[in-house]
Amino acid sequence: MTVDVAVVGGGVIGFAVAWRCAQRGLSVTVFDHQPAAPEQRASQVAAGMLGPVSEAYFGEADLTALLVASAAQWAGFATELAPFGDVGYRTDGTLVVALTADDHAEAARLWTYQESLGLPMTVLGAAALREREPALHPRVRGGALAGDYQADPRRLLRALRAAAAAAGVRVVDRRLSAPELSELDAATVVVAAGCGSAALTGLPVRPVKGQVLRLRAPDGEPGFRHVIRGWADGRRVYLVPRTAGSGGEVVVGATEEELTDAVPTAGATLELLRAAVDLVPSVAEHAVAELCVGHRPGTPDNAPILGRLSDRLVVATGHYRHGILLAPVTADTIAELVATGETPELIAPFTPARFRAGGDGARS
Ligand SMILES: Cc1cc2nc3c(=O)[nH]c(=O)nc-3n(C[C@H](O)[C@H](O)[C@H](O)COP(=O)(O)OP(=O)(O)OC[C@H]3O[C@@H](n4cnc5c(N)ncnc54)[C@H](O)[C@@H]3O)c2cc1C
Question: Which of 298, 327, 342 finishes a domain?
Fold first, then answer.
């Protein structure tokens, strides 16, 4: 059956794009290979931090602008998806904290940069921090409140699937190879296959292993309400408390390893838990509910690849650490490109041409 759009990949990016395309009246089929362990799909493992402020890093100005634009769409995105499920969008904010003097010195450089961009970030002393979040360890030296929020990626994926189905999107359980893309009976093919995108397109998308723990509070309450990201004796860690109704889940993460295996290791678990307990001692009482491993679809410049690869082929991949945050802006801009043939201004810096032209992955 001929369709307007075939989307390859059924993570948050694939389903968000499929949904937006269907809302524009296009007929859409999603081809998704179900991994042997579905919880290993990046969208199932992600913590769900929506962090344009705390993840605004030196030398990534274009990416920061895209993250900020997508964060601004998130409240509306969550509301639109509400009939299909609560996606756990929560606006309590993020505390970025530093345990020791050395941690503080390192963190403060970044806070100064983030403040200089005009992003919502307020530096706080130790007393003000603990007043906001009494669960923090009394040794925490200082920190900042960032206007960064969170959503629950597992709930998001479920809601997007339901919204896409309601909009008429068909789903086919099939792993496609690169040659099969040209055989698909579709006017446009959108590759949104996360780490599988490299084999389909030849673009430089590589898996970056991330280990994450899911803890569960004994009384069903996480014990703190902000997302907490921090430095603890040189180790980086985050703790994400979920909404009421999630059984007191706290996500603790994450490693960043240039590895392709999916094995959770004792060493990484130890380091993550030690850093987490150093910042929020009460999580030592929580049950360990899951150790999971996912692979972020990384690119040479840490930014996504969004745009046209050929007349018929469009890519929406390489979202690395930001696929949950970038889902709304990716879906809107890719659907617009597919429907109108025009590349929206917002994604002009992120087209695949930057890798095709230079060959070394550098952006101009
Ligand atoms: C540990 C960890 C923590 C993270 N934390 C955050 C966070 O806090 N905030 C945030 O914004 N992002 C976070 N991310 C990043 C985010 O998870 C990813 O950027 C995002 O999920 C990518 O979504 P995707 O749909 O492109 O890929 P995926 O979710 O991996 O989905 C790709 C789908 O394509 C399918 N597929 C692959 N190849 C083929 C093929 N050939 N044919 C058919 N189907 C195929 C796969 O089976 C899969 O179902 C995190 C990631 C990890 C691993």
Answer: 298
